[in-house]
Amino acid sequence: MPAENNPARIGKTVVIRGDVKGSEDLIVEGRVEGTVVLTESRLTIGPNASVAADLTAKDILIMGQVQGNLVATGRVEMRAGCQVHGDVRALRLAIEENAAYRGKVDLTQGASKQLDSPKTQPVGAVV
């Protein structure tokens, strides 16, 4: 049976404490505490979700509540009605009207470089 491109889901009644890592798209509708790392995938925080975690993904869409830092190699999108408290580092950021956000923003190319490549020194560099 061929695999479909349906995202994985964390249901409304599910509570996860710890690290969540994966290589497929994820929709969070419940509660997550800790870290979520999906470096090549899309992370969606549903409208009823409550997340107290640092989030790292290719793209992050937030419709619920998030307390923690967000790092995206692509885009972070905050929809109307969401509440986010934490710093954002991404290439692109979209915040809809009536979205609540408190934190610092860093929209630089460095977000993708820090996730994708290990720290290397140029040839001849003095350490």
The separation of the N and C termini measures 53 Å
List how many beta strands DSSP finds: 13
Shape: globular
Strand content: over 45%
Question: What's the average pLDDT?
Answer: 87
What does this 3D model show about the protein?
The radius of gyration is 16 Å and the shape is globular. The protein has a domain at 32-111. The chain has one helix at 110-116, and strands at 8-10, 15-21, 26-28, 31-45, 50-62, 65-67, 70-72, 75-78, 83-85, 88-90, 92-95, 100-102, 105-107. Strands 1, 2, 3, 4, 5, 6, 7, 8, 9, 10, 11, 12 and 13 form a 13-stranded parallel sheet that branches. The protein is mainly β and 127 residues long. It is built from one helix and 13 strands; from the N terminus they run βββββββββββββα.
State the main characteristics.
mainly beta; globular; 127 residues
Brief rundown of the structure:
The protein is mainly β and 127 residues long.
Which SSEs are present, and which pair or pack?
Blueprint: E1 8-10, E2 15-21, E3 26-28, E4 31-45, E5 50-62, E6 65-67, E7 70-72, E8 75-78, E9 83-85, E10 88-90, E11 92-95, E12 100-102, E13 105-107, H1 110-116
